[in-house]
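Quick start: what a row looks like.
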Amino acid sequence: MSQFPQVQPSDLADDAVLLDIREQDEWDRGHAPGAVHIPMSELPARVDELAPFLERDETVVVTCRSGGRVARTLPWLEQQGYEVANLDGGMRAWHAAGKEMQTSDGSDPQVP
């Protein structure tokens, strides 16, 4: 596997577009405001939803809770033609850095 770029949460705007591949319950508890949510298990069927990234020649910064799922997803996305990077530390690091987060029910965001 090639080495993928690591992006620090502090290097991204609070409303940066991230691809969040966590499960629905994790997303509901707290996510970045500008994130696109496609759970890892649904990605092969829904990858076309990322087409706007390709059109704008943007790097897709991918996140999960702490990085394990991203490590399995980045090589596949690269094979599909996407420029990809990992959010170093995942949503745990985003939350710890005090970055803005939203929840589905308005409660305080959590990244268990």
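That is the whole record. The chain is about 30% helix and 15% strand. The helical segments are 24-29, 43-46, 51-55, 68-79, 90-96.
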